[in-house]
Amino acid sequence: MDSVLDRAAAPAAGPPRERPLVEIKNVAVGYTDPTGHRVEVASDLNLTLARGEMAYLIGPTGSGKSTILKLLYMDVRPAGGLVRVGPYASDTTKEKDVPHLRRMLGVVFQDFQLLPDRSAYENVAFALYATGVRRREVKERALRALASVGLSHRAKARPSEMSGGEQQRACVARALVNDPLLMLADEPTGNLDPRVADEVQRLLVRLHRQGMALLMATHDYRLVKAFPARTLALVRGRLVEVDPESL
Predict the structure, then answer these.
(1) pTM higher than 0.85, yes or no?
(2) In this structure, is residue 191 part of a structural domain?
(3) Which interval of the chain is the signal sequence (predicted)?
């Protein structure tokens, strides 16, 4: 039996560590290119992201950053290893449950992917109708999401009537409307000029600071240095943490 002195010398047990929101463990993954060739992205990917944390994925175009994001919303499954987002793990989540996972997430793409024949409001509202939200609640939440990105005055505008920055703000509003725990941004400023890119980046950082986790894939090192956060470089199929100031 331990003596009183032994017990006194032992370190006090702290509070249990919170489980990460995102875990990628020893993952192998690849994709088939347009010519039909198999491209291996990684054979030993490892990543954790805490609730409310912000991080960048960096690397040149074609290095596999988008594939990593697709692993998280389960558009791609790993060839080996494990991916987990909240309670959803790649080895146990069935296809019928993937929509439930995606309701935890907001996804913003480089090419906007707005419905061209619908207004900004209708594009945001569509994301709610698809999950069965009641009409009265849809209006309230969609308008609130547009207001949060400074786009209330453009609610009736269609994508062709909006600037690139406004279209990306509409995309952010659409991603926000389900109150996601995690925002995945795939080169969200890639089609914007530097001034507008800064505006969109400031918006994403502000939303992160309100409690949302943010994982952003980018090859724009200027933005990473201007808005520093944890930075992970995809190097020879592995994620390596780097100092943003060294870029």
Answers:
(1) yes
(2) yes
(3) none
